[in-house]
Design brief:
- It is a single chain.
- The chain is mostly helical.
- The protein has one domain.
- Helices cover 78% and strands 0% of the residues.
- The chain has 14 helices and no strands.
- It has helices at residues 2-27, 30-36, 41-68, 75-90, 98-109, 114-143, 151-175, 183-189, 195-209, 212-240, 247-258, 269-280, 293-318, 320-337.
- Helix 5 packs antiparallel against helix 6, helix 6 packs antiparallel against helix 7 and helix 10 (212-240) crosses helix 11.
Length: 339
């Protein structure tokens, strides 16, 4: 019941945010204007290609993290699980999200590595989020956009700075030297029922701590990912609107808007923040974009993700039985664990 109520709450919030944005767009005749505008389909194609490249980099990054723990993980397997995870993160089916599905499938193919499989997914997610917030923070400070006399911009920038600081602490603590010389890890291992997997997870994290080049390589790859995503948003915007914010501006508005993805809401925050920032940041020739135009760009971005998810759908159709078994086992396990 709690899970159902939480899902309903998330959907309600998403629908509420999108409804408000659509109302704004209608009030400014944004959709009518969109129908009359010519679109640059080449730029939209470039945007789709850039997003596909960014997704491939994230999948290879995860493969690199898995192999760093000594688990044999060929690229074809990484692509299959990576695209399946992307599909399920985009349109979750049941209570099993894409990250959990990837971890369970990886563990299923490599018996005895369940804890390590979960750690690779968690570390991959943390690196992606942390570098995203670092890029967003750096962009706001370098460009000085936070000095704009616009409350929406200042709130967004300060929120990103705060979350960057919190994530920095979350990254430093598990990677810090173990001052207990292994005693704390052994104590975890003695906890009834959950001790052994917790110990395995801590040891996996410590493996990354001893291989800083692995984390550095993944961080650099993630910078490339978020640079490509900024290009995606820029090309979608440039394909629809002239004039439009500069590419440099998009290296601020895209990471800051995408950083709201840390919120446990599928739709709404990214669209709302992008729309607010577009309307607050001056265009090169003066003026600013109209409220609602940011929503159109965000929806174009979302459409590209849906199109690319078709690759994951193909993988899903080829392994429906295995995925269904994993979903059933995971849902049953979570149901039994619920008091």
């Amino acid at each position: 019941m709690k899970r159902l109520l939480l899902a309903v709450l998330k959907i309600t919030i998403s629908v509420g945010i999108l409804a408000f944005l659509v109302y704004q767009a209608q009030a400014n005749a944004v959709f009518a204007d969109l129908a009359e505008r010519s679109k640059d389909w080449k730029l939209l194609g470039l945007a789709a290609a850039a997003y596909f490249a960014a997704l491939l980099i994230t999948i290879v990054r995860w493969q690199y993290l898995v192999r760093a723990l000594g688990i044999d993980f060929p690229l074809p397997d990484a692509l299959r699980l990576g695209f399946l995870g992307f599909l399920f993160n985009l349109a979750p089916m049941g209570i099993v999200g894409g990250d959990l599905l990837k971890a369970v499938l990886l563990a299923r193919h490599h018996g005895g590595h369940r804890a390590e499989a979960l750690v690779t997914v968690l570390v991959d997610r943390v690196i992606g989020l942390y570098v995203l917030f670092l890029v967003a923070t750096t962009a706001t400070l370098v460009t000085g956009i936070w000095r704009l006399d616009a409350p929406s911009v200042q709130i967004a920038c300060k929120g990103v700075w705060l979350l960057t600081g919190l994530l920095t602490l979350a990254v430093i603590v598990p990677l810090a030297p173990d001052l207990t010389h292994g005693k704390s890890t052994r104590a975890l291992g003695r906890i009834p029922c959950i001790g052994y997997p917790l110990k395995r997870m801590v040891l996996a994290v410590q493996t990354y701590r001893l291989r800083p080049w692995v984390l550095l390589g993944c961080a650099l790859a993630t910078v490339a990912v978020h640079s490509l995503l900024a290009l995606v948003v820029y090309w979608v915007c440039a394909a629809i609107y002239v004039p439009h914010p500069t590419l440099g501006t998009h290296f601020v508005v895209a990471p800051v808007s995408l950083a709201t993805g840390v919120l446990p809401i599928s739709l709404g925050p990214f669209e709302a923040v992008l729309d607010l920032l577009y309307a607050a940041i001056p265009l090169p020739g003066g003026g600013a974009m109209k409220p609602g135009q940011g929503l159109v760009v965000a929806l174009g971005y979302r459409l590209i993700t849906v199109l690319i998810a078709a690759v994951g759908l193909c993988y899903y159709l080829g392994s429906r039985r295995e995925v269904a078994e994993v979903m059933h086992e995971t849902e049953a396990g979570e149901t039994e664990a619920t008091p």
